[in-house]
Protein backbone atom coordinates (compact mmCIF):
# COMPACT_ATOMS: atom_id res chain seq x y z
CA UNK A 1 0.00 0.00 0.00
CA UNK A 2 1.42 3.43 -0.92
CA UNK A 3 2.24 5.73 1.97
CA UNK A 4 0.91 9.30 2.23
CA UNK A 5 3.53 11.94 3.00
CA UNK A 6 2.66 15.36 4.38
CA UNK A 7 4.11 18.15 2.23
CA UNK A 8 5.63 21.32 3.68
CA UNK A 9 3.11 24.18 3.96
CA UNK A 10 4.80 26.29 1.27
CA UNK A 11 4.53 23.40 -1.19
CA UNK A 12 0.88 22.47 -0.60
CA UNK A 13 -0.15 26.13 -0.76
CA UNK A 14 1.35 26.36 -4.24
CA UNK A 15 -0.45 23.21 -5.32
CA UNK A 16 -3.76 24.33 -3.82
CA UNK A 17 -3.54 27.62 -5.72
CA UNK A 18 -3.46 25.72 -9.00
CA UNK A 19 -6.14 23.15 -8.13
CA UNK A 20 -9.34 25.11 -8.55
CA UNK A 21 -12.43 22.98 -9.09
CA UNK A 22 -14.27 24.70 -11.90
CA UNK A 23 -16.95 22.08 -12.57
CA UNK A 24 -18.02 18.59 -11.47
CA UNK A 25 -16.01 16.99 -14.28
CA UNK A 26 -12.83 18.29 -12.60
CA UNK A 27 -13.79 16.43 -9.42
CA UNK A 28 -14.47 13.22 -11.37
CA UNK A 29 -11.12 13.50 -13.20
CA UNK A 30 -9.19 13.95 -9.93
CA UNK A 31 -10.97 11.06 -8.23
CA UNK A 32 -10.40 8.70 -11.18
CA UNK A 33 -6.72 9.65 -11.17
CA UNK A 34 -6.62 8.79 -7.44
CA UNK A 35 -8.25 5.42 -8.18
CA UNK A 36 -5.68 4.63 -10.86
CA UNK A 37 -2.84 5.69 -8.52
CA UNK A 38 -4.25 3.26 -5.94
CA UNK A 39 -3.98 0.41 -8.45
CA UNK A 40 -7.70 0.10 -9.19
CA UNK A 41 -8.69 -2.32 -11.96
CA UNK A 42 -12.43 -1.51 -11.74
CA UNK A 43 -13.79 2.02 -11.35
CA UNK A 44 -17.49 2.93 -11.19
CA UNK A 45 -18.67 6.53 -11.58
CA UNK A 46 -22.20 7.50 -10.50
CA UNK A 47 -23.49 11.01 -11.23
CA UNK A 48 -26.86 12.68 -10.65
CA UNK A 49 -27.94 16.04 -12.04
CA UNK A 50 -24.73 16.50 -13.98
CA UNK A 51 -22.72 16.08 -10.81
CA UNK A 52 -24.15 19.17 -9.14
CA UNK A 53 -25.93 17.15 -6.43
CA UNK A 54 -24.27 13.73 -6.40
CA UNK A 55 -20.96 12.18 -7.43
CA UNK A 56 -19.75 8.78 -6.24
CA UNK A 57 -16.58 7.04 -7.37
CA UNK A 58 -16.12 3.42 -6.31
CA UNK A 59 -13.00 1.40 -7.04
CA UNK A 60 -11.07 -1.69 -6.02
CA UNK A 61 -7.81 0.12 -5.34
CA UNK A 62 -5.65 -0.47 -2.27
CA UNK A 63 -7.36 2.24 -0.22
CA UNK A 64 -5.75 4.15 2.60
CA UNK A 65 -4.16 2.76 5.74
CA UNK A 66 -5.66 3.62 9.11
CA UNK A 67 -2.44 5.44 10.08
CA UNK A 68 -2.58 7.66 6.97
CA UNK A 69 -6.18 8.83 7.54
CA UNK A 70 -4.95 11.27 10.18
CA UNK A 71 -2.52 12.79 7.68
CA UNK A 72 -5.23 13.41 5.10
CA UNK A 73 -7.76 15.14 7.35
CA UNK A 74 -5.52 17.59 9.19
Topology (elements, then pairings):
Layout: H1 9-18, H2 24-37, E1 43-48, E2 54-59, H3 66-72
Antiparallel strand pairs: 1-2
Order of helix and strand elements from N to C terminus: HHEEH
General form: globular
Structural class: alpha+beta
Helix content: 40-55%
Cα gyration radius (Å): 14 Å
Strand content: 15-25%
| Number of continuous helical runs | 3
Strand order of the largest sheet: 1-2
Q: Average pLDDT value?
A: 86
Are there runs of 5+ residues with pLDDT below 50, and where? none
Query: Tally of extended strands?
Result: 2
Describe this protein's structure.
The chain has 74 residues and is of the alpha+beta class. The protein has helices at 9-18, 24-37, 66-72, and strands at 43-48, 54-59. It has a domain at 24-69. It is built from 3 helices and 2 strands. Strands 1-2 form a two-stranded antiparallel sheet. A hairpin with a 5-residue loop joins strand 1 (43-48) and strand 2 (54-59). The protein starts with 8 loop residues before the first helix and ends with a helix.
Which key phrases capture this entry?
two-stranded antiparallel ribbon; single chain; 3 helices; 74 residues; alpha+beta
Q: What's a concise summary of this model?
A:
Helix content is 42%, strand content 16%.
Amino acid sequence: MPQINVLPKEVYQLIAAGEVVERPSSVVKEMIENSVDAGAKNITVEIKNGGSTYIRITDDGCGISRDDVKKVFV
